[in-house]
Structures are given as structure tokens and as C-alpha cells.
Specification:
alpha/beta; TIM Barrel; 8-stranded parallel β-barrel; 8 strands; globular
Amino acid sequence: MADCKIMAVIETGAGAPARLAAALAAGAITSVVITVPEGTPAADVQALIGAAQAAGAAALVRDDARLARTLKADGVHLSAGNGKAYGEAREIIGSRGIVGVDAGRSRHEAMVAGEAGAEYVAFGIPDHVDDREKAHRRRCELIAWWSEIFEIPVVAFDVTAPEEAGQLAAAGADFIALTLPSREPPAVSGELLRAVSAAIAAEAVA
């Protein structure tokens, strides 16, 4: 828990560079997962990759290993349901790149990804889930289960609030993947990053 680190999850689009800059300036971010909607200009993705790497953070492109390689990102993040693409992604990215896999809520998929060689496994809460409270509890339980048994880092995905971050850090998450709000001013991302960092630090000394 004391070593719990922060990932930032950001979607390309208007204001994305400013949001990422605000978050990077607000605290330590070890990696950035970039979501790329269809039709996004490569230059928009490249700008975020460059900003992350300039700050010393690894840049991961979500679900597009070829784009990640072309733009010289550090790796790829495979969303829930895309774990079967691990082999292809690894072949494209290479042995030195990062391939992380979101297992959703599946223990089986997480173990398969870990055995295959994923640099990390993640548990998240897909947007379509209606019972969010139940999903929050299940994600926390999965994080605790994995951290107690396996050495491969585990990431808590789809985190949007400091309270969540603190609970998940206490459960054993190695990384908190904080989603930067796309419809808020850049300053909000910075404030959120600081609040999440404080929540994680509080749990570390509790």
C-alpha cells in the first residue's frame, strides 16, 4: 500500500493536453493510458504521448498496439474483454514494451493474462454496469485477492474519486488508474490528482 502509484487515464480531444499537463504538474504520475476514439488524428495522440514521456511517465495507448508502436509509445493497455488479443499485442509491441490487461471482473482472465506475461492486470467497472455500489465492492475484493496471492502488479481501473482511491490502496492496489474528467476545466484534473495522492498517502500511514 505504501508503494501504491497513480496512472492517469485520459481521452484525446479538445483540452486533453491541458488536462494532462495540469495532472502531471499536480503530483507523481507513473504512467498515462490514452483512450483514442475512432477518427482521432495521430498528432493528437502523439502530443499526449510526448507530454507523458517528457514528464517521466510511461505512455500506453488503449487497445491499439499498432498505433502505440507507430507513435513510439511505451506500450498498450487492453480493455476488459480484449484480453484474448494479448498475444498479438505482445508480438507488435515486443518484449521490451508494456502490455497491460484489464480483466474486468474475471479472476480467470486475470490469471490467464498474468501467466501469459502481462506487465500488470487490472480490475475495473465497465460503464454498462448498473449496480455501481456492488461493483465497487467486487473490485475491491478482487484487488485484495490478487495482491495477496500474485506478484504481478494489480491496477484498480475506473477510479474517479479520492475516497475510492484510498479504499483500493488499502486493499492492496499497486496502481490507481485515475480517470481525468473530460468535461471539466484542466484545473479540476490537477485538484483531483492532488486529492487522490493525499488519500493514498493517508492510507499508507494509517
